[in-house]
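Minutes, methods subgroup
Present: GH (chair), OT, SY

1. OT presented the first of two proteins processed in the latest run. Sequence and structure tokens recorded below as shown on screen.
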Amino acid sequence: MTSSAGSSRTSAPRQKQRRSSRRSGHTSGRDSRAQSALGDFQTLPLEIFQMVLNYLSVKDISMLSMVSKTISGLLINYISTSSGSRRLLLQDFHRPELPGRREGASILEHYKALGLLLKRCTLLLPTRDRLKYVHKVLSGVSCFKLNGCASPLHCLGLQCYGVFLQILTAGWDELECHRVFNFLWELSNLARKVQTVVSSKPGSARRLELRIRLFCRGVLLSPGSHRSDSAFWLTRILKPWPMVNQARLLYIIFGPVSSRDGHVVWQKMIEGPTDETSLKGLADAIKLLYGTEAREWTADDVISLVDELSVVPQEWLMENNARLLLLSGNSICFTFLASKAVNGRAVELARLMVFMALVCEKDLYCMDWAVKMMQKVCKVFSSPWERNNFLQCLENTFAHMLMDMLQAVLAGERDEEDSSFLNLFHLVNAQANFHKEILYMAMGNNSSTT
């Protein structure tokens, strides 16, 4: 009994020893696997490893992050350190050089590379965790915030943030991109800010209008993005709002601005004829929404948006409407005109057609384009009477506009540019060239060969 009890007591420590050796063997196995994942860096203390990183470019660090999960984890820790932040989060956004010049291009390229680095480092994390980590890293950069920069017109911060996000989210599926948009929307409190500008009197919140414009164009609609990406982000910005607010918001983001202070010029389309430069941003946005990339928009949606836009903040001059349609492309232009024809708005359609001819004359477009567009629209009418009524309205509009302009010239209504006489001159030429193209078409000749 004594000997057996003694043998059992002596065997217990041996069992503990074996369990201890198994545990130590398991731990050493994990350590060895981690060390093998570090490769030659396993011999370096963490401080020396981070010092080595200071000598590597961002692109090289990005490549290094793909070596193993262990190294990727070390890089994530490095990016979060104060030395890593100072090294990687460059904040020289206010150089006097323009974005297209060398210095501006250099910092934009840096943030493209940084976006790729964080994309690779966070590859295995869920989208929500990736966004939280990225926000934690970038939260110290004030120029990345909607109201963070004191001089936003002379700052590259939002553009750098935009190219960073563009690279980070490239290849993400639509659901993930929805989460990105919602994260940014909530983070910047954009819903409340947009509500303020679209429900206030135009121009009453000029600074906020400017901030929203710069944030949307710089961050969400980053220049150089693929059309499908731009269509997605623009849809996310506009779709939550009623049509009238969509038009107002579209004007804030893409409408004309003052060259002096960058604020939106609300009276530009109302006070007088404008130029192509003032309308190009709006036209490009309309083409984007009308294209195949914007799957959530129907042709009727886009036409309604253009119609609503033409009264923001008040009814535009018809010449500016015509110029916007020309810049928006053949498909949108025809669809818009055809909708007028189908709805029996012959007088309005005739006026718009005359102003299109005037814009073609002023801006040196081929007049046969306007005539062919008119011919195409004529086929939309359901009866010969409706078509003939439209053509009669067209000729009456030419005559009334000529008489009104002639009366203004005879009354001596002249300004420094003598615009009354110039308008009359352009309209007379527009009418002559418009009817010349009709005659060529009627006689079976091609104007380009005569």
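2. SY then presented the second protein from the same run.
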Amino acid sequence: RHFSEVKVPILMEFHRHIYNNSWHFSCGTKEYKILMDEFHHVSNAFLELGKGYQEAIEDITMRMGAGMAKFICKEVESIDDYDEYCHYVAGLVGLGLSKLFHASGAEDLATDALSNSMGLFLQ
């Protein structure tokens, strides 16, 4: 099967796989392969989190997976494409962190623009 035929469905469904501690997908090399082969540890840790944390992680994981899947099928050809790609792989990290901080009660929810900028800065 073609690479995209395998990877795109996994990326699109990854936010659901985190709830299933029997799911794994053997791929990659070195530490990445170990992570994917032993994904049940990630799922078990996720399932121990409070509902607010789970919802924040699921939302960002869903959005990030969809964005990454989009760029498997599309080349980065312009500055706008590059900005969008960076949003999916880094900016969403900032949004996710903001949602986690908010879920913990440690801070008010930051705007999406500020959270996206934080993720891009961290990248």
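Chair's summary of item 2: DSSP finds six helices and no strands in the chain.
Next meeting: continue with the remaining queue.
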